[in-house]
Amino acid sequence: MRDRYSEFTERGAEIIAIAPDTVDAARSFFERESLPFTSLPDPDREVFRMYDVKSAMISLGQRPGLFIVDKDGIVRFAHLGFQQWEIPSVDDTLAELDALS
């Protein structure tokens, strides 16, 4: 998503990454990876619980979740993976955005 961030903003979308970590750890990761989008640190996993994104030993930690939320706060697309690498591709995510417009 980092390398194709402009394709999201061209569609009027914004990426917000929820990080299950402290502010300092999230900032360090985002700076190290040169991520252009916003990060919301969630060390107590409050947002993760709101969206039913689980953390489990069997999935080697935090399970991935990807949500498209419209300007009214309505979830228009949701994907919850079981393993850390199970996340929709950028092409699939952009196609979901295009289908909503």
Structure description:
By secondary structure, this protein is an alpha+beta fold. It has a single domain (5-96), classed as Glutaredoxin (3-Layer(aba) Sandwich). Helices cover 31% and strands 23% of the residues. It is built from four helices and six strands, in the order H-E-H-E-H-E-E-E-E-H. It has helices spanning 5-9, 23-32, 46-50, 90-100, and strands at residues 16-19, 38-41, 55-56, 61-62, 65-69, 75-80. It has a two-stranded parallel sheet with strand order 1-2. Strands 3-4 form a two-stranded antiparallel sheet. The protein has a two-stranded antiparallel ribbon with strand order 5-6. The longest helix has 11 residues, at 90-100. The mean pLDDT is 85.
Instruction: Find the CATH topology.
Output: Glutaredoxin
Q: Specify the CATH architecture.
A: 3-Layer(aba) Sandwich
> How many alpha or pi helices?
4
Radius of gyration computed on alpha carbons = 14 Å
**Amino-to-carboxy terminus distance:** 20 Å
- Classify the helix fraction into a percent range: 25-40%
What does the largest sheet look like?
A: 2 strands, parallel
Strand content: 15-25%
Shape: globular
Average per-residue pLDDT, rounded, comes to: 85
CATH superfamily: Glutaredoxin
- SSE order, one letter for each helix or strand: HEHEHEEEEH
* Count of distinct structural domains: 1
| Low-confidence parts | none
Secondary structure category = alpha+beta
CATH top level assignment? Alpha Beta
Strand order of the largest sheet: 1-2
* Record field, number of beta strands: 6
